[in-house]
Amino acid sequence: MSTRMEMLIMETQAEFVRALEKVDGGKFKADRWHRKEGGGGISCVLQDSNVFEKAGVSVSVVHGHLTEEAAMQMKSRGKVLKGKDGKLPFVAMGVSTVIHPKNPHIPTVHFNYRYFEIEEDDGSTQWWFGGGTDLTPTYLNEDDALLFHSTLKEACDKHHPQYYPDFKKWCDRYFYVRHRGETRGIGGIFFDDLDSPSQEEAFSFIKSCTSTVFNLVYDRGVKFGLATPGSRIESILMSLPLTAKWEYTHEPAEGSKEAQMLEVLRTPKDWV
Predict the structure, then answer these.
(1) What is the pTM of this model?
(2) More confident of the two residues 4 and 234
(3) Separation between Cα atoms, residue 165 and residue 153, nearest integer Å
């Protein structure tokens, strides 16, 4: 399965880079990196270009032994891990994209899909998939929101009728910014620890997710990356926009488009 997933994330990266270059007219900078503990990846970034302020498409395939911190995170999620001599060999891989357009009326989109495999002391393996995608507009366009969620629901429904409603709620909870009382965007889907009904069916669902996002053109992945020795910080923090600012006690004018957007962030809605 790890070989098939590696092929999928590489193909996804290549397809996205070609498509985004066609739209923008610019060229991505490819940065190949290696991790001395095992593995590496490719980060492709386009910034301050014609259409996109910043766009990044990264893949990583790393292996080695879990750190104590990473193992504790997994155990806290109910994983029963039996290492050999205190060591847990693992392989992890994924593809992640963030696209920040220059035009404020075109939403920012994020997605990340990943696969994790651990070898236990008896030679057996535990595996699971995780990831998701969400839309972060500056100004609300209800047609965009409806298209985005309808397309995700259609892809999810092909695999299980509960995937979309469950993963949509998970996304709203996961990307909720508590100190601001609002969500990061207008949602999408998010899931983790997907290890059923079978490896083949779970992989098929991941494949549907990556192709669906392609047609639409502080999380667990970041936490794991930062806790992994030899991690590539530049690639992990690729999702940050090129420029950002914070206005103290900012509150948009009542009835404005900004206020409309903020209301949706504070009260997530069901789009389909």
Answers:
(1) 0.82
(2) 4
(3) 8
